[in-house]
Predict the structure.
Amino acid sequence: MPAPQTPAPLLVTSDPALLDDLRRLAAAAGIEAEVAPDAVAALRRWTAPPLVLVGADVAGDLAHLGPARRPGVHLVTWGPPGEDVYRDAVALGVESVLGLPGAEARLTEALTDLGEGGPAPGLVLGTVGGSGGAGATTFACALGQVAARTGRAVVVDADPLGPGVDRVLGLEGCEGFRWDALCRTSGRLGGRALREALPRRGGLGALGWYAGSTDPLQPGALREVLSAARRGHDTVVVDLPRSVDAMTGSAGDEVLARCDQVLLVVRPTVAGVSSAARLCARLPDRDRVRLVVRGRGLEPGEVARVCGAPVVAAMADQRGLAESIDLGLGPVRSPRCHLGRAAEAVLARLAVLGVAA
């Protein structure tokens, strides 16, 4: 099957110098752009391109034509923009006004994201334990390992008090950024930049914490990381903290709002299901909550009835799991192990039903 072509951005300008500069930035990002030399030509192609860069020289004419509001439109100007530029920006409903040469890095990153994010943004899955010891971190890492067989995947550790996804995956000795460094950065984070900065093995990356870290998770950094991770990977798995208070704070709200599905890992015991049911009831948007049953005990149908959410996978406990993790192999040591098959079933189920299922 041929690789999908990178969607082309649209450059709207009649200024030769500005056009040359925008083409240079597109070439640096490895993509070829389409050009509309005037407002009428831009209107004909307005809805299709994933990114539209409108030069200040034609912004007024384009605003007069009244194109439909759409995301991914930016107004580009030389130097600091004046009041007239901002009036045109408001009329067009653009996402930002970018002045060159100061905004070159941001423009290049936005153009690069078109080629790095694939034809569609990645799937974001959150995992959380329904009770202590349910194994949500282990299952998050299993999902990442299985997803990385067919695409680019990353496991994001949003629980600073957890065991650490990089340690569970055997990546703790690999070079790369952790949360501690990312929380001290500012500005827009690109999909490829994040992917290349993280510890990784093959198609799987991990964003964890340095040992002994006490830095809190910053909502701004979390927002940028999840947005960049979605653009730069096919599958993003977020290991969520089990504490409801932690998840419903500002950082927790950011994570839950950006997850396409939340997978609640449940132990099928009376105590485990009771705890999971209370947590499930407190999670926002329960239509996006799915259950993964781990271990023997109550039937999956009974677990689903008590928790009020459907079961997407059930598995037995896996022998040799601790040894596999201690050896740095991750939880999925074999494609046919219990965790591997359950993770494969979840990903296949969500692919068939769609992320909104």
Q: What stands out?
A: The chain has a mean pLDDT of 87.
